[in-house]
Amino acid sequence: MKNNELILILDFGGQYNQLIARRVRECNVYSEVVPFDISIEKIKEKNPKGIIFTGGPASVYGEDSPRCAEGIFELGIPVLGICYGMQLMTYTLGGNVARADKREYGTTDVSIDNSSLLFEGFENTNGFLMSHTDFVEKVPEGFKNIGHTSSCPNAAMENKEKNLYGIQFHPEVNSSINGTQVIKNFLFNICKCSGDWIISSFVEESIAKLKEKIGDKKALCALSGGVDSSVAAVLLSKAIGKNLTCIFVDHGLLRKNEGDEVEDVFKNQDINFIRVNAKDRFLAKLAGVSDPETKRKIIGEEFIRVFEEEAKKIGTVDFLVQGTIYPDVVESGLGGESAVIKSHHNVGGLPDHVDFKEIIEPLRDLFKDEVRKVGLELGIPEYLVFRQPFPGPGLGIRIIGEVTAEKVRIVQDADAIYREEIAKAGLDRSIGQYFAALTNMRSVGVMGDERTYDHAIALRAVNTIDFMTAEAAQIPYEVLNKVMSRIINEVRGVNRVMYDITSKPPGTIEFEWQNSSKWFTGVLKWMPFYFVTNKNIWLW
Prior knowledge:
Elements: E1 7-11, H1 17-26, E2 31-35, H2 40-46, E3 50-53, E4 79-82, H3 84-92, E5 96-112, E6 125-138, E7 144-148, E8 156-159, E9 164-167, E10 169-170, H4 179-190, H5 199-214, E11 219-223, H6 227-240, E12 244-250, H7 258-267, E13 272-277, H8 279-286, H9 292-314, E14 319-321, H10 326-331, E15 358-360, H11 368-377, H12 382-385, H13 405-424, E16 433-447, E17 450-463, E18 471-472, H14 477-490, E19 494-500, H15 516-526, E20 529-532, E21 537-539
Parallel strand pairs: 1-2, 1-3, 3-4, 4-9, 11-12, 11-14, 12-13, 14-15, 17-19
Antiparallel strand pairs: 5-6, 5-7, 6-10, 7-8, 8-9, 16-17, 17-18, 19-20, 20-21
């Protein structure tokens, strides 16, 4: 990465923080999300072109509210404060922040001063997403107002001399009209970025760094056959050749026939490839375990133990390579201040002790669509690059409650039918991610004039670019109906099919809930569902 093109994003705990990083990268400027209390020394070491303060749920007057390092505004580095970030800038520099009579939320018309470099090219009024309770009552000395709404007197402010800017709204979300242009103006008008961060340069730099770091030592790659680990494998292969061994652990929690498909693909590549069939081992470890976080950690640790055992068979291995990507890091609570959403088996789910000198994660700083671009740049076939995303823990987190061989069989068969019908409908490349999950709910049904008490399958499909935010895909009813009919008729043990229409946030893309009554109660409280039957479609 080119440090002279780095934008630091200080994470104050808001829900859109990773989306800000994504928007910056869309402008061909590299960005990193870091904790809000990063030290002045560390900032100087990273030498960013600019700094963005994110939003967050706290109030600047709260006893434990997050604060940035003292002196950050004296570094001469341009700063853009968003929402809480603007309020913190105001509070720190001597302005006043007050509690609003009522919370302002939703897309709101903001009257702006388009003579400001931040709003260059805008009309006098623009719609931006507001989401705040506190507001800036008085801007600090040296600042001037450059935006307001009917209820927020200071919706934007600037100190042009010091390159300090604050906005109360969220330009990073789709709800904000021309929001990305605000970010572009900050990057290019104010930070003077050149926008030369491109995927090809990432590939070249990564290969060079990996060659230098690993040298003639050996590395193991944790290969799942999914997009991320496959791209990581090829990237390492370009760097160290035959010193790389790819170990594919078939934990028995893959999609139907996927183990054989992965082996067929990589056996034809110029890569050392080993398949380890460990289904029984993983199922034994997961027996009786229902908690999703516990399942993730068990799967993560067992992965490592399998790799350690295989490493001993081939001699000294210094490095373990994983296909970790940026959403994995951030959602595991390791990228900034945002709460842990889930522990990814290859990040937060790692055991305390691993028998390798170092774990290498060459894609750790990339979003999913960026990983796909790297794959194409490396010459990986499109059918593999655009393979449906699949989590490392596999069906272990698409089976709610205890994982058993019978449940694996049910969800594999249902998922295969779902994917087949999506492809037949020509939707497989237009939907970001889609899969079937097995709920922990069983319900009464009627099949062949007999009452049944069988499992309920939930279908999930989302449209997303970066996998940090997502909206439910609007699949035609006739397709859903065909999927429902086939699953119920062809998959033994299923008598009900549902379609999950939850966006991210508030949900996650993966189907991971607590089991039994806790799960069912949670659904009743807030989860919108379609029940798909052969007679009607009901919104629950």
